[in-house]
Structure formats: structure tokens, C-alpha cells
């Protein structure tokens, strides 16, 4: 079995690939991290703080950063002033932690640009991005960092509560942190959780479900990444539109194989209510950012399903490897044209062969007018479209029905696997007679865990699972046994396939619900054991009682749409 190649993976700071924990899907709970205060950190952390006009809020934020229970010699703070007028007054130190101020020209909404500027300026092994209007719990940095000491491709996300900080100053934060915590400062004041995040976490079993859209939870107010991974994805994208830059940053990290970890002990308090506190404002913000997210983060619920519609980042990238020794020009042309004739145009096609190959040169001439087709070598193609979520290898003798690519995409999503091996009728079931469809995320994760390229395919199957499917089920055939001209089956066949898919989905849902209940009970016991304050212990015990009673957080969450803004 062969799978589409992954782009080269850089060396990491946490050790050789063979020493890294192997996490299945996004099962971050398979990792074991130390309790807060029970271990000795060794990795450096840069706290990157983008700021614009936060003259009153920034001193409280810096006071909470100065009070972190993390060795100050391992910390630095980088404040990026996005053209505040007047400029922010940034001290050289916050307690014992050095502070660097960087100023950039304001060009509209500049949070993404400021975060990238700060990230590329920072020197820490871990980059922790926090907003300039939050007050961090004293263990916030430690809670993030313990995961990064355990695995080198974690992306950790903290939590925040919105609360009024009127009449609270930086000195108050410093004293409260020294006395055991910031929570006492705001006790009794009305507090609001990030409801849409809680809803998404409830729907995804705290990001442990094997879903392809877990990245939607990424918010720039408290997110920590390895510095090498930050650089690999090019930092935060810059679009100048609120609420999409951190979402797309999260998508890119997720697609590069990161393990997303939500840690409730990495807590903070936002100084004041949400920026978008009413539903009308949220809906308007979603409308503004939707075109950007749709183009740069392939997901069916964001993209318009219109024939012929293409996007900046294609949903699928199909490689057709050719060679004068094994492929005729006509055979390859028919394969490529059957892919181009598919119902979805949300696909990029790469025709690969070594430079100088006669078939490649002829196909290059044929495809001169096709924007969706690139004729190149295999290594170059593997690095093209790095954030396309699904990559295929299609032998040139394959023929696809008009709905084949959509069926492949849907089957991968249905089975929630890392690799789909489609056995082509009329061809030997080997590397030359199988269409391989793989999750880019799965391949990237596997490639990080081994120094031997030949082991990547086995690791994809081990960590993300794999399925073998007959080509007839997906409208995929060959020269000898082409697919039906009208698609992959009759109307009756299509109804049967839909019913089979619905039955399979119901079985998968039942299995997930059973597993989710077990995991929630374990989580509830863990929260009781980790509680550091009587009030927290009582809250954890109440949560355990609700879990044992069978009340599911996901069923009681508010039904607001996901809202990455503010």
C-alpha cells in the first residue's frame, strides 16, 4: 500500500520522533500530564500580547503575567502595539519577567498581524498568545506548558470568563495572585462563559471525537503552540476581519497534525462583557467572515455546494502518477479528464513524473489551459496545497464517475478514518490498482512520529484507522471495467446506499455515546481529585452527580451558532 506523500516535517524541540507519544485521532486524554505545582518546567515560554488602545486594561494583564507560578527566567513578554494613539506605555519588566514592546502601523483590524509580529519576534520554545484585556490565573502558563513538555505537537487552549473589573487595579491583581488566586477578586460579580465554545466542546466530547472540524474551537485569546509549528504554518494569517484569523490559524495547525488540548485549569478573566454580546451583532460578524473562512478552511458547512465552484484551498488534491514505461498519453488523458468532469470542482489535480519524461511533457501541453491541473514532479506536488484536507493517489488506468470524488469525500467523513483504500475493479488490489484517499492531518501526524517514510502508512492506519472499499461503491472503475456512465448506480442502488450510510451513522453514534459517557464519568472524578478550593470541589462533585444521573451537557447547552468572535 502507498499513500500520498507528506510535505517535509521539520525537527522539533521535544526530542526524536520515536520518543513522542502516539495519540490516536485527537484523544488528548491518552496523554498523562503532571498536576499543577508538582513538576519542574524546563522549556522557555514567550507570552505574546497584541494590544490596541488597551491603556486601562494592559496594566492588569501585565500584573497577572508577572504573578505566574512559572520560573521567571523561562519567561518573556512581547507586547505588540497595533498603532495605539497615544502609544501604550509598556514597562521594561513585569515583576521579574522581561517585557519587549514592538509597535506596528495600524491598518484596520490588526490582531492577526500583531500576533504574527509578536510570534516571529519571540524567542521562546512555546508561544502563548493572550489578549491585552484578560487577567490570568497564576497557574495559567504552567497549565499550558505541561502539555508541551509531554508532546511536541500539542496546541493548547485555555478558557476565559467575562466579568466586570470596575474598581479593580493592577495592585489588586498582584495581591490577589499572591494570596492564592484571582477568582476571589471577582467573586459575587456576574460572570459569563464563552457559551459557543462550551457548546462545541459538548458536541465533540471535549474535542475527543474523531471529527474533522475540531479546529473551530481555536481562539487567539489563550492559545499556545510550539514555536517551530507556528513558523511552519507561517504564523497567523492576516485578513483584517475580526474572528477569522485565529479560526484559520487553528485549521492550519489541525491540518498539520497537531493534537488540540482544552485545559480548563488554564483559566483567565476577560475585563468586561463580550465584544459581541447580542445575537444580531454575532450574526453580522459571522456574515462578514464567512467568505474568508470558506475559502481558506475547507468544511462543508462553510462552502456553497454549487457545480463548478472552486475555492482558494481545494477540498481534495488528486495525484495522477504517470511514466513513459507504464502509461500511455491517451490513458492518462482519459483519467485526468474523468476527474475534471466530476460534479465537484473543489479539487486540484497533480500529474506527476520526473522531469524529461515524454508522457509528462505531452500532458503539460494538453493541460496548458487548465488552472486546476499542475504537471510537475512528485516531490513538488506533495508540498503543493499543504492545507487541503484530503489527498488522493489515482492510477492513470482509473476512470471516475461524475459523483465519485464527492462519494470519496463523504465516505471518509462517514467512517472518520485516516485512509480509504478503494479497490478498483478490473485491476490488481495493490499499489497500482488502488485509489488511495488519505487525511492530510493523519499523514502529517504519522510523518512526525517516525524517521522512516516506509512506516507512515502503517502509522496512519494505527492512529486514525483505515477502511477498504470496493470501487463499485464509489463510482470508480478502470479501462477494463469503467463506472456506469450516469454515476455509481441506479436510483434504487442510490437509495440502498443512503440507507446503509444512515444505518452506519446510527451505529457510529451509538458507539460514540457509550464511549462519551464513560469518558465523562472519568473526567468528573478527575475534576473532583484536582480541585484545589472547597468551592471548586463542591462544583466538581455536583458535576459528577449530574454525570452519574445521565444528564448530558451537550443536550442542555444553548443552541447558539459557533461564534469565534470575541
TrEMBL record:
Keyword hit for Iron: no
Glycosyltransferase 2-like domain ranges (all copies): 46-162
Stored CDD domains: Glyco_tranf_GTA_type (cd00761)
Pfam families, A to Z: Glycos_transf_2
UniProt entry keywords in alphabetical sequence: Transferase
Cross-referenced InterPro entries: Glyco_trans_2-like, Glycosyltransf_2, Nucleotide-diphossugar_trans
Biased composition (Low complexity): 1-17
One GO MF term: transferase activity
Region (Disordered): 1-21
Transmembrane residue ranges: none
Domain of life: Bacteria
Protein name stated in the entry: Glycosyltransferase
Amino acid at each position: 500500500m502507498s499513500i500520498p506523500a507528506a510535505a517535509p516535517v521539520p525537527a522539533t524541540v521535544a526530542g526524536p520522533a520515536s520518543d513522542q507519544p502516539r495519540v490516536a485521532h485527537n484523544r488528548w486524554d491518552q496523554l498523562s500530564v503532571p498536576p499543577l505545582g508538582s513538576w519542574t518546567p524546563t522549556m522557555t515560554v514567550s507570552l505574546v500580547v497584541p494590544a490596541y488602545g488597551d491603556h486601562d486594561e494592559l496594566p492588569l494583564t501585565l500584573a497577572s503575567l508577572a504573578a505566574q507560578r512559572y520560573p521567571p527566567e523561562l519567561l518573556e513578554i512581547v507586547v505588540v502595539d497595533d498603532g495605539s494613539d497615544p502609544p501604550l506605555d509598556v514597562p521594561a519588566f513585569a515583576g521579574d519577567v522581561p517585557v519587549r514592546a514592538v509597535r506596528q502601523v495600524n491598518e484596520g483590524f490588526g490582531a492577526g498581524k500583531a500576533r504574527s509580529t509578536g510570534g516571529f519576534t519571540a524567542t521562546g520554545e512555546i508561544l502563548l498568545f493572550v489578549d491585552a484585556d484578560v487577567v490570568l490565573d497564576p497557574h495559567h502558563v504552567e497549565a499550558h506548558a505541561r502539555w508541551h513538555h509531554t508532546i511536541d505537537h500539542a496546541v493548547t487552549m485555555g478558557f476565559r470568563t467575562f466579568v466586570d473589573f470596575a474598581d479593580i487595579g493592577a495592585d489588586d491583581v498582584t495581591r490577589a495572585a499572591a494570596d492564592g488566586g484571582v477568582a476571589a477578586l471577582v467573586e459575587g460579580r456576574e460572570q459569563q462563559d464563552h457559551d459557543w465554545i462550551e457548546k462545541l466542546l459538548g458536541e465533540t466530547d471535549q474535542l475527543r471525537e474523531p471529527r474533522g472540524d475540531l479546529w473551530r474551537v481555536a481562539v487567539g485569546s489563550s492559545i499556545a503552540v510550539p514555536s517551530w509549528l507556528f513558523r511552519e504554518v507561517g504564523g497567523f494569517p492576516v485578513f483584517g476581519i475580526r474572528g477569522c484569523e485565529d479560526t484559520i490559524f487553528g485549521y492550519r495547525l489541525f491540518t498539520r497534525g497537531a493534537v488540540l488540548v482544552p485545559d480548563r485549569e488554564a483559566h483567565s478573566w476577560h475585563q468586561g462583557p463580550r465584544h459581541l454580546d447580542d445575537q444580531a451583532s454575532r450574526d453580522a460578524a459571522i456574515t462578514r467572515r464567512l467568505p474568508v473562512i470558506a475559502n481558506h478552511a475547507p468544511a462543508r458547512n462553510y462552502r456553497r455546494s454549487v457545480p463548478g465552484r472552486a475555492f482558494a484551498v481545494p477540498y481534495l488534491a488528486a495525484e495522477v502518477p504517470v511514466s513513459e514505461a507504464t502509461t500511455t498519453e491517451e490513458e492518462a488523458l482519459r483519467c485526468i479528464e474523468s476527474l475534471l468532469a466530476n460534479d465537484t470542482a473543489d479539487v486540484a489535480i497533480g500529474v506527476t513524473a520526473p522531469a524529461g519524461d515524454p508522457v509528462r511533457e505531452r500532458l503539460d501541453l494538453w493541460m496548458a489551459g487548465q488552472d486546476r491541473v499542475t504537471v510537475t514532479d512528485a516531490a513538488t506536488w506533495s508540498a503543493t496545497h499543504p492545507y487541503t484536507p484530503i489527498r488522493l493517489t489515482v492510477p492513470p488506468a482509473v476512470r471516475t464517475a461524475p459523483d465519485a470524488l464527492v462519494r470519496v469525500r463523504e465516505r471518509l467523513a462517514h467512517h472518520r478514518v485516516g485512509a480509504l483504500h478503494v479497490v478498483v475493479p478490473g485491476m490488481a488490489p495493490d499499489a497500482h490498482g488502488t485509489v488511495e484517499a488519505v487525511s492530510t492531518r493523519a499523514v502529517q501526524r504519522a510523518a512526525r512520529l517516525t524517521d522512516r517514510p516506509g512506516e507512515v502508512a502503517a502509522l496512519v492506519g494505527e492512529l486514525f484507522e483505515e477502511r477498504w472499499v470496493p470501487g463499485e461503491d464509489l463510482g470508480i472503475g478502470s479501462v477494463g471495467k469503467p463506472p456506469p456512465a450516469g454515476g455509481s448506480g441506479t436510483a434504487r442502488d442510490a437509495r440502498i446506499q443512503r440507507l446503509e450510510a444512515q444505518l452506519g451513522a446510527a451505529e457510529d453514534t451509538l458507539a460514540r455515546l457509550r464511549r462519551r459517557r464513560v469518558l465523562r464519568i472519568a473526567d468528573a472524578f478527575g475534576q473532583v481529585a484536582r480541585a484545589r478550593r472547597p468551592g471548586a470541589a463542591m462544583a466538581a462533585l455536583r458535576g459528577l452527580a449530574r454525570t452519574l444521573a445521565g444528564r448530558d451537557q451537550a443536550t442542555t447547552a444553548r443552541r447558539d451558532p459557533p461564534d469565534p468572535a470575541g
